[in-house]
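Ticket #4471: structure export looks truncated?
Reporter: QA, pipeline team
Priority: medium

Steps to reproduce: submit the single chain below to the structure queue and open the exported record.
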Amino acid sequence: MSVDVLKVDALRAAHGQLVAVREVSFDVARGEVLALVGANGAGKTTLLRTLAGVHPAAAGRVALCGDDITALPAHQRVRRGLAMVPEGRRLFGDMSVRENLRVAGEHGRRGRWDLAAVLEALPTLQPLLERPAAALSGGQRQAAAIGRALMSNPELLLLDEVSLGLSPIAVDGVYDSLAALKQERLTTLVLVEQDLDRALAFADRVLCLREGRIVLRGRPGELTRAAVTAAYFGMEAIEEGVR
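Actual output as written to the record:
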């Protein structure tokens, strides 16, 4: 029996007195793509940041490949195989794309993702290698940020607000890159996506959050857009009878 790459049990996270994530539980199988959807303020980014170790868990448990990482700081989670592409990309703007990628590789794990493998998976980066990250377009920055995360050789890749602030053409390019990763099924993906159509078309499973709780979950083929929209805006009962 294979071990889930990620298992989350009754996770709770807060900003002071404001509870942003409320007893959230789910798991993600190896090679799976899980999309987190929900309105602004639903707790998606806080959940991702808590999984990555950059926001503390108030309660609950996070396990990566069967190991409890709840108390580990972010840099130790990277060494265990968890990487995050944060909202805003956060590249080193005065460094070239090549330098951004190499820095991540030097501080990551050993594995299949070296510079050549990343460029094969993300060919749009090849002509940008010597360009300063600050000079990239939004879509190019997102691709570079994904490449940088891959250089750490993650078992699990977290992507926050994949399409936020990007043009439709740039979003298409980013999802083309992610499709190549999905096809290989070698890296497990959890992504936050505001675009419901994108999430339903790309993910293997979808979790909808509202006010810090999971209110709907399922596979895109099992969920109608109307059901997800209803959960998104609070027009249904809190999840009932779901797995």
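Status: closed, not a bug. The export was complete when the record was re-opened. Leaving a note from the reviewer for reference: Strands lie at 6-15, 18-28, 33-37, 59-64, 67-68, 82-85, 156-159, 188-192, 205-210, 213-218.
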